[in-house]
């Protein structure tokens, strides 16, 4: 399956020093993962420079080094060096060639935006499956190839891993693959050289400013998926100014665009929506035609996801009636406003959601409050080693609930109490309306203790995750499992009256 340097780098702006006919057996970007015969790409990162690991890569068997500057190693006389201007782009392009451009054999759908990516990709996968297609999903919750589910470590994998994954999907005869595309992935060229059939934008709200620093830079990273490097049909939600700007750019470029949103100028927008605890009834205007149907997801933000998936289905050439049939039986998305079911709940509804941005938390709370006859209680925290500027904003957003319990999320290497202090700094107007309980299990138990029949609890921030990152440890922790256990403890047969 190997490729020569000539085959991998043909047409790229590069200089090959050594044997251009050297055959590469694999592609690596971590020296400790190099296998004999691999090409090692010296990636210049924010904290480390891959060029400093060149000798280690050679010691592990690398026969080709891809570099941005020539490295001089006394023991590397038989190692070919390929000098490029950008090792990340070169790695992405070489990876695509190494696996024979697998995305060209698929209808690859890329969904970007701050919130809604996971739900939308799963809805697209379901629509395509109902349309008789063999499908795949790549994203935060994991990877799906046909009926096989696998865990993943990144929302969007690094380019060699992504191209290998797409090759597996091609070889498994997948027709449609729906992929979450993060801003980090776009900025770090992970998806460069991938061919998309459709790219879609959901929204832009505060997140990842520790990395991008400004909203404008965050937007421009997302916007790359709609530029010349990624020609495709487009689906764009135009409910915020960022979507409208994308629409302007894509229209100027002559792209095929389907717009969605509550904005009545969108090609897909709702004429009427009725929200219920178990489902939503909608009358949808699709390019001037009206379609009325129910689907088993709740909340206003899921209307946005439904419309985006509808638009993607249209851009994939799937018939409207098939799309509606699929949405009527839409699946529960893991950890996305997922109801916790247990034999004994005391009349208290508990929902688990991945909401970890201020906007997502507000939308999740708003959806639950609209369905709840009693009070709404929110359990939430913020992740460590991530954008600290959003913490007080998350605190303010949580005050939309009747009561909040501030706790730990994934503190990572930060002090959990310091993270909580940052959150509480934004809750100055909510004195008496929130508790602080750093232990996440105890916080969930506290919310259940406070709840009465008819109340709802939102446990936010971790969603589908079945772990908690504390220091360097990965602890077993699943909000859904813990909430179920604490409900049984409070209301089960052995509970005290």
TrEMBL record:
InterPro entries for this protein: Mur-like_cat_sf, Mur_ligase_C, Mur_ligase_C_dom_sf, Mur_ligase_cen, Mur_ligase_N, MurE/MurF_N, UDP-N-AcMur-Glu-dNH2Pim_ligase
Catalytic reaction annotation: UDP-N-acetyl-alpha-D-muramoyl-L-alanyl-D-glutamate + meso-2,6-diaminopimelate + ATP = UDP-N-acetyl-alpha-D-muramoyl-L-alanyl-gamma-D-glutamyl-meso-2,6-diaminopimelate + ADP + phosphate + H(+)
One Pfam family matching this protein: Mur_ligase_M
GO molecular function: ATP binding; magnesium ion binding; UDP-N-acetylmuramoylalanyl-D-glutamate-2,6-diaminopimelate ligase activity
Domain Mur ligase N-terminal catalytic: 24-99
Positions of UDP-N-acetyl-alpha-D-muramoyl-L-alanyl-D-glutamate binding: 31, 155-156, 182, 190
Entry PTM: Carboxylation is probably crucial for Mg(2+) binding and, consequently, for the gamma-phosphate positioning of ATP.
Any Gene Ontology CC annotation: cytoplasm
Extent of motif Meso-diaminopimelate recognition motif: 409-412
Annotated positions binding ATP: 113-119
SUPFAM superfamilies registered for this protein in UniProt: MurD-like peptide ligases, catalytic domain, MurD-like peptide ligases, peptide-binding domain, MurE/MurF N-terminal domain
Binding site for meso-2,6-diaminopimelate: 386, 409-412, 461, 465
UniProt domain Mur ligase central: residue ranges: 111-312
Cofactor: Mg(2+)
Record function comment: Catalyzes the addition of meso-diaminopimelic acid to the nucleotide precursor UDP-N-acetylmuramoyl-L-alanyl-D-glutamate (UMAG) in the biosynthesis of bacterial cell-wall peptidoglycan.
PANTHER family associated with the record: MUR LIGASE FAMILY MEMBER, UDP-N-ACETYLMURAMOYL-L-ALANYL-D-GLUTAMATE--2,6-DIAMINOPIMELATE LIGASE MURE HOMOLOG, CHLOROPLASTIC
Family: Belongs to the MurCDEF family. MurE subfamily.
NCBIfam families according to UniProt: murE, PRK00139.1-2, PRK00139.1-4
Name the record gives this protein: UDP-N-acetylmuramoyl-L-alanyl-D-glutamate--2,6-diaminopimelate ligase
Protein's organism: Senegalimassilia anaerobia
């Amino acid at each position: 399956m190997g490729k020569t340097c000539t085959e991998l780098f043909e047409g790229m702006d590069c200089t090959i020093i050594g044997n251009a006919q050297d055959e590469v057996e694999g592609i690596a970007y971590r020296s400790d993962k190099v296998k004999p015969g691999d090409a090692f790409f010296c990636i210049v990162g924010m904290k480390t420079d891959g060029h400093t690991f060149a000798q280690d890569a050679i010691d592990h068997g690398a026969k080709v080094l891809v570099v941005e500057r020539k490295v001089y190693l006394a023991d590397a006389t038989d190692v070919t060096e390929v000098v490029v201007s950008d090792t990340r782009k070169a790695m992405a392009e070489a990876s695509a060639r190494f696996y024979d451009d697998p995305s060209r054999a698929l209808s690859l759908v890329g969904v970007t935006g701050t919130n809604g990516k996971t739900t939308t990709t799963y809805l697209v996968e379901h629509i395509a499956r109902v349309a008789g297609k063999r499908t795949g999903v790549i994203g935060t919750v994991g990877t799906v190839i046909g009926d096989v589910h696998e865990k993943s470590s990144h929302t969007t994998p690094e380019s060699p891993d992504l191209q290998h994954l797409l090759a597996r999907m091609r070889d498994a005869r997948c027709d449609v693959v729906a992929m979450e595309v993060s801003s980090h992935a776009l900025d770090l060229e992970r998806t460069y050289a991938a061919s998309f059939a459709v790219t879609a934008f959901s929204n832009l709200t505060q997140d990842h400013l520790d990395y991008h620093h400004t909203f404008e830079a965050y937007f421009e990273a997302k916007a790359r998926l709609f530029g010349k490097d990624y020609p495709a049909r487009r689906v764009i939600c135009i409910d915020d100014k960022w979507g409208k700007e994308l629409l302007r750019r894509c229209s100027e470029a002559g792209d095929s665009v389907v717009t969605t949103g509550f904005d009545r100028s969108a090609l897909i927008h709702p004429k009427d929506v009725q929200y219920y605890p178990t489902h939503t009834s909608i009358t949808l205007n699709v390019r001037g035609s009206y379609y009325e149907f129910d689907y088993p997801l709740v909340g206003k933000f899921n209307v946005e996801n439904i419309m985006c998936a509808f638009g993607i289905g249209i851009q994939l050439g799937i018939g409207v009636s098939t799309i509606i049939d699929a949405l009527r039986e839409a699946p529960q998305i893991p950890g996305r406003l997922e109801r916790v079911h247990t034999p004994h709940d005391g009349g208290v509804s508990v929902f688990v959601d991945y909401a970890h941005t201020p906007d997502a938390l507000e939308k999740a709370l708003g959806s639950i409050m609209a369905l709840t006859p009693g009070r709404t209680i929110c359990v939430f925290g913020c992740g460590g080693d991530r954008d600290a500027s959003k913490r007080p904003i998350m605190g303010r957003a949580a005050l939309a609930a009747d009561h909040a319990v501030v706790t730990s999320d994934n503190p990572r290497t930060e002090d959990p109490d310091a993270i909580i202090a940052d959150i509480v700094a934004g809750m100055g107007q909510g004195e008496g309306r929130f508790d602080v309980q750093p232990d996440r299990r105890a916080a969930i138990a506290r919310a259940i203790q406070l709840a009465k029949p008819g109340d709802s609890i939102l446990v936010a921030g971790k969603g589908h995750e079945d772990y908690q990152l504390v220091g360097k440890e990965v602890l077993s922790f699943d909000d859904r499992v813990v909430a179920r256990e604490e409900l049984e403890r409070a209301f089960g047969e052995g509970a005290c009256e």
